Amino acid sequence: MPRPKPFNTSRRQFLSCATATTAAAMIPYTFTTNTAFAQSKKSGLRFALIGVGGNGTRTAPVGKEFADLVALCDVDSRHLDRGNAMLCDGEADLYSDYREVLARDDVDVVQISTPDHWHTKILIEAMRAGKDAYCEKPLTLTIDEGKLIRRVQKETGRVVQVGTQQRSSFNLFNKALAIIADGRLGKLKKITVGIDSGGWSPEIPVAEVPKELDWDRWLGPTPTMEYRYLEDSKRRYTNGHTHFRWWYEHSGGKLTDWGAHHVDIAMLGIDAAGQNSDPASVSGTAVHDVEFVDGMPVQHNRYNTARQFDLNVAFADGDVTMNIRHDVDNGLLFEGERGRIFVSRGKLVGKPVEELQSKPLPEDAVAKVYRGMPMIGNDRPAHWANFIHSIEHRTLPISDVHSHMKMLNVCHLAGICCRLGRTIQWDQATEMIVGDDQAAAMMSRPYREGFEIEG
């Protein structure tokens, strides 16, 4: 894929604004808080962590500020032992089968931090077992899985918070959305979403499965495949732990990894501007390191998700476009008729940000984009606080499954576009790919016998 033309001087300068501008963006905003809730964070709820790998051990300590962690579940005993020592002083109940956790009447909440391909099955069964859930993103592997999750959530009334914690980033992402909602950019014209390139690997040989890992259960609903592992002096490569994101069998690659964060904020920005965020099509180009036939990889010993991409999302009204690419700064560049801002996990910059010094936003501007809910903490702590608040009040959390899936469907459509190498047309009203039977068939996938997801 040819590299795009470099940013022109003004844009390069814009993205590296003076330190003073970045500092101004980082000035804490005055939040509307629920004082009683903030003073008593412990809810009395008991929760279990299902999936005790990297994301699990990063997010569960935050959850422990609000609920009691009583059980851990993982198919790798090494994760269980490490997590029990790290999170629970060796006192947690340990499980290798999540169904035993869901059967406990004294577990109110589950945090699902498994690899992506297990999210849907465990979440659906958790909701039907009467559990509220905090589930890491991306919620699903397919579009049709999202339809099922949304239906079950409505049927059961369970509270599900998706782990897109950028929705609870008040000093950066929510402040950017407030700037847009206040009309400081005018009508949005273009959003550039930078999510970095995907993973690369050499050929990875078949290897012996570690004795502590139940590989068959780790694979779960996905096709049977041999365990692969390679380690050199610099790094390791595998189709298992951590590196599952680079295999279409288990994930959607970078598009459903960072894409699930930044495309999310992009579409919230369109909504904040009062414009139509219904996607209509995805087009563009991608680079894979393996050959594809009919949208399926034919080589099985290397990472197979898209490594490079330049994708364009068109929306129903045609007045704003989204460009998702690997080769620009990680973050979002919002460009409107009156100005532009760039926001990432490290900065919020642009002339409209500088102008806040002399013309601040209305006092409730950030609170409004946070749906008027209590704003306690920031990022992960705020996201968990919002989850607990929503459980106590039986309301939709800030990152609910319905708005999440509208965004994630764009990421899934982008992945199908990459795999088939052609434009994908989408009808938001029916939530269907139109005019392309082969692409439409990729809205779902078969499940391995014994691990089916019940509708």
TrEMBL record:
Keyword Signal: yes
Cited SUPFAM superfamilies: Glyceraldehyde-3-phosphate dehydrogenase-like, C-terminal domain, NAD(P)-binding Rossmann-fold domains
Residues covered by the Gfo/Idh/MocA-like oxidoreductase N-terminal domain: 45-163
Signal sequence region: 1-38
Gene Ontology MF term list: nucleotide binding
Domain of life: Bacteria
InterPro entries: Gfo/Idh/MocA-like_OxRdtase_N (IPR000683), Gfo/Idh/MocA_oxidrdct_glycsds (IPR050463), Gfo/Idh/MocA_OxRdtase_bact_C (IPR043906), NAD(P)-bd_dom_sf (IPR036291), TAT_signal (IPR006311)
Gfo/Idh/MocA-like oxidoreductase bacterial type C-terminal domain mapped to chain residues: 203-452
Keyword annotations of the record: Signal
Entry-linked Pfam families: GFO_IDH_MocA, GFO_IDH_MocA_C2
PANTHER family: BCDNA.GH03377, OXIDOREDUCTASE FAMILY PROTEIN
Full protein name: Oxidoreductase domain-containing protein
Protein species of origin: Rhodopirellula sallentina SM41
